Amino acid sequence: MAGSRVAHATLKGPSVVKELCIGLVLGLAAGGLWKMHHWNEQRKVRTFYDLLEKGEISVVAEEFMAGAVRSSRVVAAATIERENPLVSVEFVPEGSLVTTDFVCNRVRVWVNTDGIVIQTPRIG
């Protein structure tokens, strides 16, 4: 019994090659996902401008948008989405600050605390 030895696992340090390969794979996967997202956004913008050029949609606040003032937010959203299904409606509380960036598939609708539209909705 005195002569038997117990085998112990020896701990090695991290493998540099293995760490580099894992980092490379993860980086390529994340980059690929980001690129697919970017292509999808470009496709949406291209579709928007194609429809705009054909005259199928408009960025001008037409009668239906001007008619949304003093209506409920639900009616305004339904009307806007029916007229242009490519946009998403964003409700903005009265007096709120918003960013100045232009997003072609967003319509901002300013509402008061009662949920009534107080200003003509705008694309952007």
UniProtKB/TrEMBL annotation:
Pfam families the record matches: potato_inhibit
Protein's UniProt keywords contain Transmembrane helix: yes
GO biological process terms, semicolon-separated: response to wounding
Entry's Gene Ontology cellular component terms: mitochondrial inner membrane
Keywords of the record: Membrane, Mitochondrion, Mitochondrion inner membrane, Protease inhibitor, Serine protease inhibitor, Transmembrane, Transmembrane helix
Family: Belongs to the cytochrome c oxidase subunit 5C family.
Protein name (database record): Cytochrome c oxidase subunit 5C
Organism of this sequence: Acer yangbiense
Classification of source organism: Eukaryota, Viridiplantae, Streptophyta, Embryophyta, Tracheophyta
